[in-house]
## 1
Amino acid sequence: MGQELWTKVDEYINAVTMAPDAALDAASAAAVAAQLPPIAVTPAMGKLLHLMVRAHGARRILEIGTLAGYSTIWLARAVLPSGHVISLESNPKHAEIARENMLRAGLSARVQIRVGNALDTLAQLAAERQPPFDFTFIDADRANLAEYFDWSVKLSRAGSIIIVDNVVRKGAVIEASSDDINVKGVRRFNERLAGDSRVSATMIQTVSAKGYDGFAMALVL
Ligand code: SAH
Ligand code: DHB
Ligand code: MG
């Protein structure tokens, strides 16, 4: 049991749950062509986010970490016809590719990609007094994860949901002495979670075509 099997099972899951999808395929192909890192959510995780948003009836979505907009497409499709996604991305090249992908997917009207360091953009969103976000997907650098989560809670309302990607990191998350900047960032976030009376949270371990990892889910109280 290992990566080979996890990848095969992901292919099987895709085959039994998903129809061919030109816009998602084009977005993935554009990311490959531009040599972006292959770190978008898997199709199954993208669809999980999509279904969570629909089940929740969320209309205003915040995403931190756009890359080529693969997850953004899943999120934006879930808020049709009246919702909106604001996705934060620090790399202008990633943002440009994501905008092209939104255009191809017919989603440009409901997706706003804001270029800049998410720490600055989040402060800006707060300063603009944006109405609260119903659903937030955090998937950017892990060094600032605790701050991203804190901002996300502040930009939420009671009943909002926050999903945080990549919180298990092949199990390295339990290594207290790790000097991996990502592990340290995730651990700093995790350690605050139990004592954060603003939310109720859980964490789910996952295996997939992207290996062994996991995500956190928090309900804002
Ligand atoms: N959510 C995407 C994948 C995001 S990958 C998907 O599943 O399809 C993480 C992204 O976060 C990268 O594009 C990276 O450039 C961006 N990022 C890294 N540090 C950031 C920061 N400080 N502010 C905003 N975006 C950042
Ligand atoms: C990495 C980032 C991700 O968001 C992810 O889902 C997997 C890996 C990374 O930076 O290695
Ligand atoms: Mg991720």
## 2
Amino acid sequence: MTSPTIESILQEKRTFAPPAEFAENARIKSMAEYRELYDRAAADPAAFWGELAEKELHWFEKWDKTLEWEPPVAKWFVGGKINLSYNCLDRHLTTWRKNKAALIWEGEPGDSRTLTYAQLHREVCQMANVLKQLGVKKGDVVGIYMPMIPEAAIAMLACARIGAPHSVVFGGFSAEALRDRLNDANAKLVITADGGFRKDAIVSLKIQVDKALENNAASSVDNVLVVERTKEKIHMEPGRDHWWHDLQQGASADCPAEEMDSEDMLFILYTSGSTGKPKGVVHTTAGYNLYTHVTTQWTFDLQETDVYWCTADVGWITGHSYIVYGPLSNGATSLMYEGAPRPSKPDAIWEIVEKYGVTIFYTAPTAIRAFIKAGEHLPKSRNLSSLRLLGTVGEPINPEAWMWYHKVIGGERCPIIDTWWQTETGGFMLTPLPGATATKPGSATHPFPGILADVVDLEGNSVEDNQGGYLVIKHPWPSMMRTVYGDFDRFRRSYWEHISPKDGQYFYFAGDGARRDEDGYFWVMGRVDDVINVAGHRLGTMEIESALVSHPAVAEAAVVGKPDEVKGQNVVAFVTLESDYTASDALEKELKQHVVDEIGAIARPGEIRFSDDLPKTRSGKIMRRLLRNLASGEEISGDTSTLQDRSVLDKLRGGA
Ligand code: WTA
């Protein structure tokens, strides 16, 4: 782990108060109101969340105990009975929301679909019955590997309805990556599609599923449910593969929601860490439901008439919490888009905002930087006046991108919420509340009420204002991950031991450095572990190294991030070859493709540098810090006295 430094931090002084008109109508209207909530929550977090759980959610049975905390094990709403799919659907059907749009879907080659709450409920019940018919029982894990089509959300809600934890795997992951995740989770069934449309191309998902299951002795998958989307020709394995549209025909639309224990597993979602294979982050039912519900409502200042659009993919936590569960639990209208901006249709995003009158728009800094590059004439030629709130997530946003977003997209009238959180946290940890918080470009501002965040040193002492340190949370919150699937010890080691517990105080730490300024604003400085963030996607350098080393030509590999104007970071791999191979452009291409096959296109190295040796310490550890300097073309910084062989650096520099 590198220690956070504050060398490169911009001293950003601009502040933007919430526009008066926005604040007047907002759910939380002032800093005084935020402080009152924050202080009340901090004084007694369990009482604070208990009150909200009672007010905001439907329970089949009330809980006995709001919080049991035996670090690092937290149990929320112990003894309660609840169902997330019920909270997202059934309870809206007895209100006028029955015929309100739940999902508005914009498909790629021009098709679109709107599902009301009643229609969505119907399809979810049908799919839930089909899953049961295919032998899925409460507690069985279901893999979901889908394009961005309504059936992806339907599949998630159907699983939640019958108590089958889902494990969604992003449709951009390769067959290899899918296989690892399905095997690790012991998935019984996979829901997929023949393919999906993305950036003018077809992604052949079913072919990847076939590859993942082929010659896979460890597989526990008995059935594959296939949604027809692209109509391309695919193989259907008799007895194993079933078309959704065939089974849907005979499926009843009556499927009562299973009464789940609060702490029953809701889903697994794999994410990258600094060591080993991706971790299966486990979330449970009630706490996740409550936290995503309340954060969606307050942070997006949700109003009944909003048209809310989050551009993430359901394969990531942002899609889980803030396309599907948070918005639907609140009875909101959530827009889903199958595609992505691309050169052939550079203003697709603004066209959709205009077409549906989107009011809340939530995206990633990497997308904003791509919009800037595409030119402001594109958004300017559209009517974006429906927008009232903008948000960002996924990586630190640079103040220039923030200002562009504010001026060009927000017309200087929309507050911007910069939300810091992680797969592990389930929901927003640091975020402005748009009617209350004065924002500063590049700062995620303050903790959400109930979140006791701090910046500390390795001993757990709070650091001084404007000093870099480790960003930690000091009290459990309802949507905190509960464990790493199948590996509790890894959960403890990965998140609770970097900062040593002291006097009964435990510190949740998951990899980010931060500083707090003299006004109490948090500035997230990025990962301090071996995780890199490429176009908002979280990648473990070790995963990419393992992928490279699994190629016969590669003896050793070290991967680092290099700053990139649009993607935030780009993957640079330093590779030494086995003796009977020589470096060539063809080999470079082959290795890049090999990483795509092993992990997926999101991990494709931007650059591969061949070298005879890598800089190592005397004890043989690769000195990534030096490689980061080299990749960025910077001067070598810091101490090099532990380097085994200095000439390696000179050679690498020469070759750069
Ligand atoms: C980074 C995505 C700065 C951070 C929700 C974190 C951010 C990782 C922000 C989690 C932000 C996310 N400002 N950095 N607003 N949001 N990050 O699990 O490094 O895919 O640890 O969850 O993204 O990525 P994950």
